[in-house]
Amino acid sequence: MKLEVITPEANLFAGEAISVSLPGVDGIFQVLNNHAPIISTLKAGEMKVELSEFVNQGSLSEAVKLEGQNILRIEIKGGVAELFNNKLIVLAE
Predict the structure, then answer these.
(1) Among positive and negative, which fits the CA dihedral 82, 8, 70, 56?
(2) CA angle 9, 32, 66 (to 5 degrees)
(3) What is the pLDDT of residues 26-60, one digit of tens each?
């Protein structure tokens, strides 16, 4: 699925993901490819993204931490996530 993580200051990440775990207000939830459409509010916490291809830390924002070669961890203060037609957009603080 396509993933975009956007904050008011910058676009933190755009690329292809296999799975994304998000800190929803009712608990952590995960979305995968072909997941049903969803809109959810997010609380402060950590997003965990499993990428479909390897990335180089040098190409990432400072707010994005690379674990191994294909796992991203992004700390957010809250926001909104929308998944529709295999495109996940996270508007985060």
Answers:
(1) positive
(2) 50
(3) 999 999 988 899 999 999 999 999 998 876 666 66
Query: Is 39 within 8 Å of 81 (Cβ atoms)?
Result: yes
DSSP state of 86: T
- Side chain identity at residue 7, one-letter code: T
Q: Torsions phi, psi of 69, nearest 5?
A: -115, -5
Q: How far apart are CA 90 and CA 40, in angstroms?
A: 10
Question: What are the structural domains of the chain?
Answer: 2-92 (2.60.15.10)
Of the candidates 43, 42, 34, the residue with the CA atom closest to the CA atom of residue 83:
34
